[in-house]
Amino acid sequence: MTDVRESVMPRQVRGAQLLLFGLAFAGLVVVLALSGRLTSYGLGDLMAPWILVWVCALLALKYDGSARGGVRIVTIVVMVFVVLPSFSKALGAAGPAEFTDAALRIVLGLPVIVLLFLPETTAWFDREK
Q1: What percent of the chain has a predicted confidence (pLDDT) above 90?
Q2: pLDDT for position 6
Q3: What pLDDT score was predicted for residue 2?
Q4: How many CA atoms lie within 13 A of 109 on its CB side?
Q5: Closest-CA residue to 59 (of 71, 69, 47, 70)
Q6: Phi, psi (5° rounding) for residue 121?
Q7: Whose CA is closest to 72, among 63, 81, 80?
Q8: Among 34, 68, 104, 125, which one has the highest count of C-beta atoms within 10 angstroms of its own C-beta?
Q9: Rounded to whole angstroms, what are the CA distances from 74 to 17, 27, 46, 67, 82?
Q10: pLDDT per position as a tens digit, 30-45
Q11: CA 56, CA 75: separation in Å to the nearest integer?
């Protein structure tokens, strides 16, 4: 007989999943709010990191199903590629909108990376099918 706790997603994984969904929604709001006054180059520069966030949110949809360690590692790597450049964007921001854009990715992205490194999260992704 299987243990009931094995089939319930840990709080840490659910927290990472919800943070990714919230970050993806925030990205949608930011892109829609700032897209009206940008050139096509500026819009591409704005959307590039958010596309990676949306990919991570799509990966998060699989967390409670058949996702294994590879999905966790890919999410971590992609989020690192989102968060690290956001620090330089925040430090070199020309206005409050650019700073807020980068700060959102940092404030919500760092906890996702930390949560996905926790032992409970690793155990969840390494469980048997």
Answers
A1: 60
A2: 58
A3: 43
A4: 28
A5: 71
A6: -70, -45
A7: 63
A8: 104
A9: 14, 20, 22, 11, 12
A10: 999 888 888 888 888 8
A11: 6
Nearest one of 17, 14, 117, 3 to 69, comparing CA atoms: 117
Q: Would you mind telling me the total number of residues written for the chain in this entry? A: 129
- The amino acid sitting at 48 is A
The enclosing H or E element of 70 equals: helix 69-91
Copy the structure tokens of residue 91: 């430090």
Q: In whole angstroms, give the CA distance from residue 34 to residue 19.
A: 22
Mean pLDDT of 68-84: 93
Lookup result for tokens 């969840």: 124
The predicted-structure confidence for 1-25, as pLDDT tens digits, reads as follows 344 445 788 999 999 999 999 999 9
Cα separation, 84 vs 10, in Å, equals: 27
- Angle between helices 69-91 and 96-117 in degrees, nearest 10: 150
